[in-house]
Write a structure and sequence with these properties.
Distance between the termini: 55 Å
Number of strands: 22
Number of helices: 15
Helix content: 25-40%
Length: 558
């Protein structure tokens, strides 16, 4: 049985819950994680780890381990569009292989100035790594095969009851806080009475309503298909629209198709599932069906609240996406990173009353933003309908394919080249950000403008071929001193008095000073700029503000 006492009870063992366990374990916070599944995911599920998530994996020390998983290192991560997989290729948005990404990121600037590029890997592999690292941390106890049955909040904390799925045995756990990262049917969210708001019934030709997922093995696929391999394979025809992610680059795929009105999911047998895949391929290819099931597309939902008292929700429990752009899983990782350091500070007695409240203040608007972008991508693809002649071997058919190809190439670039979404989330109105009177750059999906305006991701810089600026940051707080005259002693003293673990980085480089537009920059544990300025005369007020003790602080001098 799990331990009877811990600081945080995490309900849900997907990416969000497992990331939280890693954040807590690295900070010496005890946590028990329970999930009613027998183990981590069997099905591929999410397939795109965005660059910001990879930067967090780098911060935790296992980005290279993640990048080695999934597709072979030389496998192209292109997004390709076809009438059917063995028929006409309509468009292709080329992206680098894992091996190429490692080298290319060091040469990029502007929108893609980053420590890591995205990686195309199935969630099933990521969860295994997150679990292994979490279980290796002292104070972290991971238990699959247990479900939460009830909980209550008392003056002392949380009293929860869990049940072992295999035999119904019950067990009580006392914790200081509880986090529900337990998916769209969240027991925790429902117990709190939080509803979803947003869109939940979008009707589209594709990516709207009932979808059918098939996890399959087709080792002959790359022999049968005459086109170069791609990570994401999308069909565009009037009979069988689908998207399919390569899982291992050898023959395993996550295939998803739109069910039509006449297709009843209850009547789909393994043979029918195989036939659906063959319709998309356009050839009688053999395949082994590993699993299949129905899911609903068309959601863009965000919970009404993310917190009540000592109880929080995160991940799919807090927001539900149609999986366009790969935003759901990556938004969940950001939830975990944001909440992890704040709960740890509260448990250590270093948090003011606004610090935990800032989780909802920061993450809920970001969830609305990201579900909105995902909805736009789903509309762009799903409302674009194939014309009847799209597959005809006629001049009219060729014209139709040319028009579709132009549209789909532009769509692919818009959906999968998204540095603005990846890096551009900003918390500049947060109660724990010391604003300096500057405005952040405009928010745009396909453009990221690096800015040290407080509340945004710290601008990135490569210091050498192998060293990222982020590699110098401390795991907790970081003070950048970006000019030789920058002392920052008042900030250092105020941070010490507040009990902060502060790493001081001296980087008197003109390039860094120009990038950050200040001599002194205070970076949060989640690599967000908390404050910047040329003078730290108001250091005690600044530190109190960023820890949630003050609702206002003197603006910096920039």
């Amino acid at each position: 049985m799990p331990p009877a006492d811990c600081s945080v009870l995490i309900v849900g063992g997907g990416p969000c819950g497992l990331m939280l366990a890693n954040e807590f374990g690295r900070r010496g916070v005890t946590a028990v994680l329970v999930d009613q599944k027998a183990t981590t995911a069997f099905n591929p599920q999410a397939n795109a780890t965005q660059a910001r998530t990879m930067e967090h994996f780098r911060r935790l020390g296992f980005a290279q381990e993640i990048r080695a998983l999934g597709l072979p290192s030389d496998f192209p991560t292109d997004i390709a569009y076809f009438t059917r997989y063995t028929k006409h290729e309509l468009a292709r948005f080329k992206l680098p292989s894992a091996r190429e990404a490692v080298e290319r990121i060091k040469q990029l600037s502007g929108s893609w100035s980053a420590a890591e590029l995205p990686h195309r890997v199935s969630q099933k592999f990521v969860e295994q790594v997150l679990r292994r690292h979490a279980e290796a941390l002292p104070g972290i106890s991971v238990h699959y095969g247990f479900r939460l049955t009830r909980f209550s909040e008392t003056a002392q904390g949380i009293e929860a009851e869990i049940e072992r799925v295999s035999d119904g045995a019950t067990h009580r756990i006392r914790s200081t806080y509880l986090v529900g990262a337990d998916g769209p049917r969240s027991t925790v969210r429902q117990a709190l009475g939080f509803g979803y708001t947003g869109e939940d019934g979008a009707v589209r030709d594709f990516f709207g309503g009932r979808m059918f997922a098939i996890y399959l093995r087709a080792p002959d696929f790359y022999r049968v298909v005459p086109h170069p391999p791609a990570w994401m394979n999308v069909t565009f025809n009037r009979e069988r629209r689908a998207f399919m992610a390569a899982v291992d680059g050898k023959g395993e795929f996550a295939f998803h198709t739109q069910l039509r009105a006449h297709e009843a999911e209850s009547e789909i047998t393994p043979d029918r599932a195989l036939a659906m895949f063959q319709e998309a391929v356009g050839a009688p290819i053999n395949a082994e069906i590993l699993s299949y099931g129905t899911w609903i597309a068309g959601y863009a939902l965000v919970a009404e609240k993310f917190q009540r008292g000592r109880v929080f929700i995160a991940g799919d429990a807090a927001h539900l996406f149609t999986p366009a752009g790969g935003l759901g899983y990556n938004t969940a990782i950001e939830d975990a990173v944001n909440l992890g350091w704040k709960l740890a500070a509260a448990i250590r007695g270093k948090a003011g009353p606004d610090l935990l409240a800032s989780y909802e203040a920061e993450r809920q608007p970001n969830a609305r933003r990201n579900t909105g972008y995902a909805r736009q991508f789903a509309d762009s693809l799903g409302l674009f309908v194939p014309v009847p002649e799209i597959e005809d071997d006629t001049p009219q058919g060729a014209d139709a394919r040319r028009v579709a190809g132009d549209y789909l190439e532009a769509h692919g670039r818009a959906e999968f080249n998204i540095p603005g979404i990846t890096f551009g989330a900003r918390y500049y109105t947060s109660p724990i950000v010391a604003a300096d009177g500057t405005e952040p750059p405009p928010d745009a999906a396909n453009l990221y403008i690096p800015s040290a305006c407080p509340g945004g991701r710290a601008p990135h810089l490569w210091l050498s071929a192998e060293q990222s600026l982020y590699d110098l940051f401390g795991f907790e707080w970081t003070l950048l001193r970006l000019s030789r005259g920058a002392d920052g002693q008042r900030i250092i003293t105020a941070a010490t008095d507040a009990g902060l673990d502060l790493t001081v980085v001296d980087l008197p480089l003109d390039e860094a000073r120009d990038l950050y537009q200040a001599d002194l920059v205070l970076i949060r544990p989640d690599q967000i700029v908390a404050w910047r300025g040329n003078s730290d005369e108001t250091a005690p007020e600044i530190v109190r503000r960023v820890l949630g003790f003050e609702t206002s602080a003197a603006p910096a001098t920039v």
